[in-house]
Automatic annotation (TrEMBL):
Transmembrane domains' residue ranges: 12-30, 264-283, 303-324, 330-354, 375-394, 460-481
InterPro entries according to UniProt: DUF2921, HRD1_E3_ubiq-ligases, Znf_RING, Znf_RING-CH, Znf_RING/FYVE/PHD
Protein name: RING-type E3 ubiquitin transferase
Gene3D superfamilies (UniProt xref): Zinc/RING finger domain, C3HC4 (zinc finger)
Family annotation (PANTHER family): RING ZINC FINGER PROTEIN (PTHR22763), TRANSMEMBRANE E3 UBIQUITIN-PROTEIN LIGASE 1 (PTHR22763:SF162)
Keyword Ligase: yes
Pathway: Protein modification; protein ubiquitination
Main location: membrane
Compartment(s): Endomembrane system
Originating species: Handroanthus impetiginosus
EC number: 2.3.2.27
């Protein structure tokens, strides 16, 4: 009996151990295979040694190639042998790629959309500087292979690449500079419609095969890691076996948009600093001509001209801030300071000059003065809007128009010569305004690494600097040597001399009513000045008086210019 119980106990223990062994041998492998149904693995997972960390950048990690690429293109043959498109006469040029990569359900494959812009493709006869092609394809990141074809989507259809372009500061700043400084939208639309690229899309299959590699920060001067794209673009014909054009070699390097973002921010800081300097210079000039006669010497056209320039800069920076949303705060700050310069300080100074040049009548009606003031404002804003229309219509001559805009010192030079004005502008104002006015155009058209990607024009910058410098030099000569110092005396009109000869007694003396001291007429004639009404004053006293009022201190008669 005892043996039967022990045998039963052993059999039960054996069954339990056998059941646990079955569970360990049979159930455990099944659990190891269940993730195949829960997470389907693609062909890439069969051999791809993924790291433990998904974000680990190992030799087989996926790279996000979304971004902007800038590089060059060139034909493999020295001359293009295309019979379909003989307009491809250029053998090389610049290119810009905008790519957007999105993961797919297939591991190891990313869907890619984008735009390729080829510069300097066609000859000058078509007046088309570049061609733009929409592309789409796949990026097989385990092999670092990029395969793309021309996108046959219709114009007006927006995809993910358009959303990326609308948020990319690099692309938006390029569009802004192209619209404002390079070509008008109307010319751009005309060029696109007449571009041979449309015929190419109809009769050619554009295929691009490229290899992606990464350039470490050590090889690009400590900058962030960049991606390098190099491949071949072919165009087999749809109708026959002849290629549309010879194979084209493409190479491009990713652009760090943060660099252009920082450049744009630094530019707005420069504009803000320039605006602050202009405010200080305007205050200095307003203190220099704080009297009625001093303000009357300043040209109304000169101040109005500078106010219109600042208004244009205010609108330009505000438009750039609205277009590039990520840079709105920076550009809006620059636009605000320009608005303060022209709307508060320059317009106030403009009204002071207008009031000083306007004859005062005791019985004048307030309505008449308000009408004249409304005419002044209407002319100012009319010229402001008319200038915008002129620059839009004559966009091809924009650089010549900008050169004319910087002729703001010419009205003051002419006024000085006509009125023979004496020291109307402070030298600090002349030099400071000359430098601050040309700083922005010299950066845009002279800096080879400006954020708007405009090709520098050295000759135009030299002409601008010489033109404004010549105007400032003439004003300084007028300030120190007289308003008509560069005009021959033979052609100058006769003017009254305050140091004219006069009949004097042996011991005759009179008093200066300005300083209330005696004037010794026996001394040199340069020590005293005589007005047309035969009143005598010290030279320094009368000159300081005429800086305030152009009337005789004794009889209040109007005085001619000294």
């Amino acid at each position: 009996m005892g043996q039967m119980k022990s045998w039963n106990f052993l059999s039960i223990l054996f069954r339990i151990l056998f059941g646990l062994w079955c569970i360990f041998v049979v159930i455990w492998p099944v659990n190891g295979l269940r993730p195949l149904r829960q997470r389907p693995r693609s062909w890439g997972d069969e051999w791809l040694p993924l790291g433990k960390d998904e974000h680990e950048l190992g030799p087989f990690s996926s790279w996000n190639i979304t971004g902007t690429y800038r590089g060059n293109w060139k034909f493999l043959d020295s001359t293009n042998s295309s019979s379909k498109f003989p307009d491809f006469r250029k053998s090389n040029g610049n290119s810009i790629l905008e790519l957007v990569s999105t993961p797919t359900k297939i591991t190891g494959v990313h869907y890619v959309q984008g735009v390729i812009i080829f510069h300097d493709v066609f000859d000058n006869e078509h007046d088309v500087r570049g061609a733009q092609i929409r592309v789409e394809g796949v990026y097989i990141w385990p092999f670092r292979q990029l395969r793309m074809v021309a996108n046959s989507g219709k114009d007006g259809e927006f995809g993910q690449e358009d959303d990326y372009l609308l948020s990319n500061p690099y692309h938006l700043l390029g569009v802004f500079s192209s619209q404002v400084f390079q070509e008008s939208p109307r010319e751009k639309i005309w060029k696109r419609k007449h571009s041979p690229i449309y015929e190419m899309e109809k009769h050619c299959n554009i295929e691009i095969a490229a290899q992606i590699s990464r350039v470490s920060s050590r090889q690009n001067d400590g900058d962030q890691d960049k991606y390098y794209l190099e491949g071949l673009m072919e165009s087999p014909s749809v109708d026959d076996d002849v290629d549309c054009f010879s194979p084209m070699l493409l190479n491009a390097t990713s652009v760090n948009t943060e660099v252009y973002y920082n450049k744009a921010v630094n530019y707005t800081l420069m504009v803000t600093f320039i605006s602050f300097l202009e405010v200080l210079l305007l205050i200095r000039q307003m203190e220099h001509s704080n009297t009625q006669s001093g303000a009357a010497k300043v040209s109304l056209l000169m101040i109005g001209h500078q106010a219109i320039m600042d208004a244009y800069l205010c609108l330009l920076h505000l438009t750039a801030g609205i277009l590039v949303e990520s840079l709105f705060n920076a550009f809006a700050t620059a636009a605000f300071f320009k608005f303060v310069v022209f709307s508060i300080f320059e317009m106030r100074y403009l009204l002071a000059i207008w009031k000083a040049n306007r004859p005062m009548n005791n019985g004048e009606n307030w309505e008449a003065m308000r009408r004249e003031l409304s005419v002044l404002y209407s002319r100012f804003y009319g010229i402001l809007l008319g200038g915008i229309v002129v620059m839009y219509e004559f966009h091809k001559f924009l650089r010549f128009i900008l050169l004319l805009l910087h002729s703001f010192w010419i009205p003051q030079i002419i006024i000085n010569v006509v009125r023979d004005s004496r020291k109307p502008l402070h030298p600090h104002y002349i030099l400071g305004m000359t430098v601050t006015r040309i700083a922005i155009p010299l950066y845009v058209f002279g800096c080879p690494h400006n954020f708007m990607r405009i090709e520098p024009d050295r000759n135009w910058c030299i002409c601008l600097a010489l033109f404004t410098g010549l105007q400032a030099s003439i004003l300084l000569l007028q300030h120190y040597f007289g308003s008509r110092c560069f005009i021959p005396r033979q052609i100058l009109p006769e003017k009254y001399s305050y140091y004219r000869r006069f009949h004097q007694g042996s011991n005759h003396a009179t008093d200066c009513v300005i300083c209330m001291t005696a004037i010794d007429l026996c001394q040199r004639s340069n020590d005293c000045m005589v007005t047309p009404c035969d009143h005598f004053f010290h030279s320094g006293c009368l000159q300081r008086w005429m800086d305030i009022k152009m009337e005789c201190p004794t009889c209040r008669r109007a005085l001619p210019p000294a």
